[in-house]
Every structure is written in C-alpha cells, then in structure tokens.
C-alpha cells in the first residue's frame, strides 16, 4: 500500500504552483519555498518507505502521530489528507529556514541573550536606517578633505557622558579585553582575583580571553575573599596590570570580600602599574533609582581612577552589540595603533546605533531607551497589561486563563540577584500538556517565547510590545489539541 501511495506524491513544481495560489508562503523567497517543499516531500518518502528506524519511532509518538496520519489512511483518502499534512510541514520547514526573524519575547527577560539582548529605540533604529542607504563621512574629515577617524564621531559624546579623556569602540566587550591584553600584556603578567574569573557565556571564559590576548594570568585570593595584600604580594617585575572583572552574571554573598577599585588604583600608582576594569554590562545609571541593587556605574568607576574601563553596548547601555573602552588618552592611543584594532573595529551601522542611543542620555530622555523603559514599569501598569491580554483570550476553548503575581529578571549578565515584581497572564491547556502548548506557540509563523510555570504557560507583559498582544491572541485561537 505504501508503494502505491508513493506514486501519488506530487512533483516539486506542482506543489510550488499550488502554493502560489494561496497566501500560505507569503514573505518567503522562491528559493526558500523550493527548499522547504523538497524537505517536506523527502520526509514523506522516508515515512512511506519506513527506511529509517528513527523516523519510524518518531512516527509512533503522540507528538507527531496527528501530522502523519496519511500513512494509515485509505488510498482514496490519501491525497486530501496528505496535502493537509504537506502544507503544514512546508510551513514548519520555512519557520526553520536559516534566517533571522521577529520573535515575541513574553518571558519577562529584558536582556534575552538568545533573542538579541537590548532593543534599539525606534529613533535610534531610524538613524541606522538613514545611514545605511547613503554615503557618509565615516572616515572623512570634511574640513580638510583628508582621511579621518571613524571613532571621532563618538568620542566627544562618550567624553561628555563619562568624563573620559578618550575612547574606542570594538565589536564586543570580550574583544575589548582581548585588545587590551594584546596591547599591554603580551608575555606579561595580569593579576586577577580568583573570584572574578568568570565565564561570560557560551563557554567563553576570562582566563581564556586573557590567554588569547597573549597575557599570563596570575590568580590571587580565594573564590570568596580577596584582599589588597594578595595583589601586593603578587606584583613582580613582569606584572603588566591589575585587572578587576565585574561579576555581572553571578554574586558571591555572605562570607566574602573584594578590593574596591579605588584601593587598587592607589596600589597601582605606588607600583607604576595601570588598573583596568572590565565592567561587563556597564551602566550609565544608578539602578537603585529603579528599585534595583546598587551597582558601580561607568562614570563612578572612571572617577575611582581606573586607567581603562571596558563595558558592553547591548546590555544596560541599551544599544547595539559593542565593546566600549574609555580611559586615559595615552593608553587609548596605543590601543588604536594595535593591528588587531582593524580586525575588531565596528562598522558604520553599529556606530550609528550607538550614537543614536547615546543621544537619549545626552538629552536626559532615558524613558525612550527600551531597556530602561521596561525596567521602570510599575507593578500596577503590568497588572493592567496582563488583564488586557487575559480579556483578549477570554472564552477561547480548551484554555484556562488567569492573571497572577510573578517575577521578571533583567538577564544578559546584569543584576543577577534582582527580583522585578510583575503580573503575568497564565494560560493552562485543559487537554494536552503545557509543553505542547509552549511548543505550539514557539513554532508559529511569528514565534512566541513564553515561560512554563508549574502547569501553565505564562506571558509577562514587561517585555511585550504593543503589537504583540494581538499576535498572541490570534495564535492561541489556532490552538486545537
């Protein structure tokens, strides 16, 4: 019977022609649709031939049985049943096609690393779009007509906002640390507290970044306690710098001690050694004004006397991915001369996004920066938003809807112990598992990312955009277990 069904499988061009008569694949290029059709037909052939045991096992699972019911239907029913399966499979393949696309972040994690971290403000994004389609004076001195520096466009803004003598922007904060090591510490020693040898994500670790930059790591102190004398005793003729790394993504609490930057600076001056601070997700603002734990700001760290300070652009700053280095001009000038700088430099679009974001700080319009706007949401506002979504979902069959207290988090290696009170709209399926519902939402044409809390999928309005509510409601109307 399966072989007879094989003969009924349509050719690729026929399926593409049928899809063209519908809006099922609108927005996708022909090459992507062709790829998806071929993948779906190939999967159908494997199912019918049962030539892969693994596929056969998947076939019998409850999750895929419904989609693959064409296998057991009668020949006269095969074509309509198969076509329904085929179109669903093509759309599923297209959703997995290798390109970035919009997703809805309903997790409440503001700086969601998997979703691109900080959102750009519309005004900053418009400035990027403007610069993308025209020529610019990126490296042109308009007064002299000679070649200029791409960094000149941002140095004055960073100097105004931070008080730094000079600055440099590279493609992320790990690159900033790498460049600093490669410029000042090749084959020399860099002293770091053991409690600050962090893993920054994706298995990339500070010791490995230092090693890649050519530096020799000297660990001092213990995991939970490091004292000034630990640094003093480690300083030798090969010491290039004292490095302090802000533990952005975790905290040691209780029986602990770390040496403040200003104390390290005094020691550095006595020994003639620069002090470099990796602030990680550095902030220009005091988070305590938003109910967050107090953290050292970029400005305060520089005022403490650090020779160089590096931090990310796409975390608490609220801009694009970038590694920003500020500090003493003579040191920044050395960094600019390093041959690695060209390999690590940012392009005009990153600079435009960064400039567009920093302008809000210049004008004091912090509320227009999405990260800080989301951080500033009050619990009352979040309750209203959660109720709004619950009202849009009221009466949907197969679902129980409830608004309840919950917690959001900042994410992105920032304020790891902070608890942000929120309200969420909790959706519990009456049939099927909550895992099935979460997967269904994630695999829509516009993927919706939500959290599972106990026996419900929860939507946190803290990270929802105004247009997201209707998309969520429309997708849940399609839920048909």
From TrEMBL:
Its cofactor is pyridoxal 5'-phosphate. Keywords: Cytoplasm, Protein biosynthesis, Pyridoxal phosphate, Selenium, Transferase. Its EC number is 2.9.1.1. It holds the Pfam family SelA. It catalyses: L-seryl-tRNA(Sec) + selenophosphate + H(+) = L-selenocysteinyl-tRNA(Sec) + phosphate. SUPFAM superfamilies: PLP-dependent transferases. This is L-seryl-tRNA(Sec) selenium transferase.
């Amino acid at each position: 019977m399966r072989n007879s069904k094989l003969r009924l499988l349509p050719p690729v061009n026929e399926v593409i022609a049928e899809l063209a008569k519908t809006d099922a694949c609108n927005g996708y290029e022909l090459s992507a649709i062709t790829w998806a059709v071929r993948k779906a037909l190939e999967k159908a052939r494997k199912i019918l031939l049962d030539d892969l045991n693994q596929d056969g096992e998947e076939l019998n699972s409850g999750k895929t049985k419904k989609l693959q019911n064409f296998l057991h239907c009668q020949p006269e029913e095969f074509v309509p049943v198969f076509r329904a399966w085929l179109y669903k499979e093509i759309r599923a393949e297209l959703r997995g096609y290798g390109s970035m696309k919009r997703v809805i972040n309903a997790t409440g994690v503001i700086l969601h690393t998997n979703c691109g971290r900080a959102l750009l403000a519309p005004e900053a994004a418009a400035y990027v779009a403007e610069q993308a389609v025209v020529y610019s004076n990126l490296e042109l001195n308009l007064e002299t007509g000679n070649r200029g520096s791409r960094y000149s466009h941002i140095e004055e803004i960073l100097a105004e906002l931070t008080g730094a003598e000079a600055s440099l922007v590279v493609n992320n904060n790990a690159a900033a640390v790498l460049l600093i090591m490669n410029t000042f510490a090749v084959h020399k020693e860099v002293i770091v507290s053991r409690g600050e040898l962090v893993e920054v994500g994706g298995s990339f670790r500070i010791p490995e970044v230092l090693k890649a930059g050519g530096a020799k790591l000297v660990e001092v102190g213990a995991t939970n306690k490091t004292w000034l004398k630990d640094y003093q005793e480690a300083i030798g003729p090969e010491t290039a710098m004292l490095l302090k790394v802000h533990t952005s993504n975790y905290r040691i609490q209780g029986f602990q001690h770390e040496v403040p930057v200003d104390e390290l600076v005094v020691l550095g001056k006595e020994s003639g050694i620069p002090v470099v601070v990796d602030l990680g997700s550095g902030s220009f603002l005091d988070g305590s004004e938003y109910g967050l734990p107090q953290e050292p700001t970029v400005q305060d760290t520089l005022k403490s006397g650090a020779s160089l300070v590096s931090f990310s652009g796409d975390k608490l700053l609220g801009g694009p991915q970038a590694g920003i280095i500020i500090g003493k001009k003579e040191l920044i000038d050395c960094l600019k001369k390093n041959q690695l700088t060209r390999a690590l430099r940012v392009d005009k679009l990153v600079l435009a996004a960064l400039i567009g974001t920093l302008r809000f700080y210049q004008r004091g319009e912090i509320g227009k920066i999405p990260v800080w706007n989301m951080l500033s949401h009050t619990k009352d506002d979040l309750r209203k938003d959660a109720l709004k979504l619950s009202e849009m979902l009221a009466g949907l069959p197969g679902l129980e809807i409830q608004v309840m207290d919950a917690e959001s988090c900042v994410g992105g290696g920032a304020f790891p112990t902070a608890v942000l009170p929120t309200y969420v709209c909790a959706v519990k399926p009456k049939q099927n598992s909550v895992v099935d519902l979460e997967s269904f939402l994630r695999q829509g044409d516009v993927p919706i990312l939500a959290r599972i809390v106990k026996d419900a999928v929860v939507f946190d309005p803290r990270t929802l955009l105004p247009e997201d509510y209707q998309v969520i409601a429309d997708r849940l109307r399609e839920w048909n277990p």
